[in-house]
Amino acid sequence: DAKTTQPPSMDCAEGRAANLPCNHSTISGNEYVYWYRQIHSQGPQYIIHGLKNNETNEMASLIITEDRKSSTLILPHATLRDTAVYYCIVRVARGSSGSARQLTFGSGTQLTVLP
Amino acid sequence: EPEVTQTPSHQVTQMGQEVILRCVPISNHLYFYWYRQILGQKVEFLVSFYNNEISEKSEIFDDQFSVERPDGSNFTLKIRSTKLEDSAMYFCASSGLQGNEQFFGPGTRLTVL
User: Could you give the maximum distance between any two Cα atoms of chain B, in Å?
Assistant: First the structure.
């Protein structure tokens, strides 16, 4: 799986948009970009994923650059409950055997939403 | 909303003892995983399970570890002879046919004394 680079920490004011960047310059054509978050030792929580088009769901938006070498997760109106470690993970959906691939977690970005 | 459940929430054991951590994945999911997180460290993959067999395993998942799906609902992780360094949060996860979105349980905190 391609390596990702994220800033170790970011702050965001409550109610403002949080934009979390991720670099994945060695991403392959069949690798997806996934975002998960972990709120203080709870189980990681899936947020969103995409291949090359921008994606939006009820939690967030994912913007992937045209060359796919970087992406940005956008939380449009951050709340205090969004304080968490956010992980950007690049991987193929399925391995050669057809089974779903593992997730390889890095250190992520600690997002702190300030009141 | 369906969720992954894990029991117990906290397990304390003596070094050398066997422990079994239990998980109930989401009912129609096909892929099952165990991860662990030592305090203050990254979440690490242990093993994935599909079609009643191990699909992938990491270097951490040595002969002391085993997984089993004894019935249609439970998915267990057994550590045969626990070591102090096995102390960690253990997370179970499951995913559906597409394998994209992994749903994680709340974790079991294992403390080895």
Answer: 40
Q: pLDDT digits over A16-36, tens only?
A: 999 999 999 999 888 999 999
- Non-local CB neighbours of B47 within 8 Å, separated by 6+ positions: B33, B34, B54, B56, B57, B58, B61, B65, B67, B77
Cα separation, B27 vs B2, in Å, equals: 8
Residue B13 has phi, psi (to 5 degrees) of -145, 160
Report percent pLDDT > 90 for chain B: 83
The residues of B whose Cβ lies within 8 A of any Cβ of A are 4, 31, 33, 35, 37, 42-45, 48, 50-51, 55-56, 58, 89, 91, 93, 95, 98-107
